[in-house]
Amino acid sequence: MTLKAIKVLEESDIVYLDTYTSPLPSELVEFLRSRLGERLRLADRSDLEDRVTELVEKAASMSVAVAVPGDPLIATTHIAVLVEAAVRGVGFEVVYGVSSVSAAIGSSCLSSYRFGRTVTVPRDASGENLKTIYRSIEENIEAGLHTLVLLDVAGGGLTASEAVRKLLDVGAEMGGRLGPDSIVIVLARLGYRDEIRALCRASEVSNLQLPPPPHIVIIPAELRSYERDAIKKLMQVDEELLKPHKPASQRRARAERYVAKASGALNRLQILTSDAETLKVLELAKSYIEDARFFLNSDMIDDSLIAVSYAEGLLDCLRALGKVEFTW
């Protein structure tokens, strides 16, 4: 907890400690109890949802705090408490904490800019629900984005092994990209003394010696070179496991076709206006095509497609401005 959070709790008349949305270490509960005494109340779902009106009414006449593990506004339950307070004209203040979401992304050694839609795997997810979750993972991979997979914390928590097995089963059924040889990152009990970070193939998650939940799984898309280097050095992962996988032949063929088309157009085009600006843009387009070819040879297909699209855009703009003439 931040010093501000401790100060606010100690100055509160009543502190509701959320025991519903996230598991709590016993050390934290005892720490708060030693500081707050009888002012500390362990709050369950009914306190924070069914009796939220009662909670807000108390806050109108005394200092009431809701203590939440992690970031207090990650769960919709807590946003609903603030909405109720706003409707009743009761003032409030939010003291932010460290979220497991940001901690997981940071500790994964992956770029925070390359994460797509986050998904959650419930313990009792139906087959159709799992398919919906899996489609989101597939969409992220297709877009070259990593997927943060949060796991149910109810009933002792869903383990990484259980969650990955569910996803592999539905992936096999749907014929998706995620398979036994796909790499995954497993994060267990982040912030606890026994936390573990591991990268392995999906089929090997069940072999990991993990402490009890909470667990988080990250399914990476194609890794960038700086991500591979960070994982290798900071997580001490075998370099062989991090070698770029060979992408699907259709995506490679598409990238090869686009690079060849852009290169051919650049070589054949007729310059109509040889001003410095036109020549500079043509040189930039050439650089993007060279980058696209380099990425293609390095099996970084998504990067290759992005680079060649920049080159195509520049060439199209020059043609639209009447600076050059060419056909695709």
Tell me what you see in this structure.
By secondary structure, this protein is α/β, with parallel strands linked by helices. It folds into three domains: 3-87, Cobalt-precorrin-4 Transmethylase, domain 1, CATH 3.40.1010.10; 101-242, Methyltransferase, Cobalt-precorrin-4 Transmethylase, Domain 2; 249-325, Substrate Binding Domain Of Dnak, Chain:A, Domain 2 (Up-down Bundle). Helices cover 49% and strands 13% of the residues. The protein contains 13 helices and ten strands. It has helices at 3-10, 26-36, 45-50, 52-59, 76-87, 100-107, 127-142, 160-174, 225-234, 239-242, 249-268, 276-297, 301-320, and strands at 14-18, 40-43, 64-67, 119-121, 147-151, 183-188, 196-201, 215-219, 270-271, 324-325. The strands form three sheets. It has a five-stranded mixed beta sheet, with helices on both faces. Strands 2-1-3 form a three-stranded parallel beta sheet. The protein has a two-stranded antiparallel sheet with strand order 9-10. α12 (276-297) runs antiparallel to α13. It is elongated, with a radius of gyration of 26 Å. The termini are far apart. The relative contact order is 0.08. The mean pLDDT is 91.
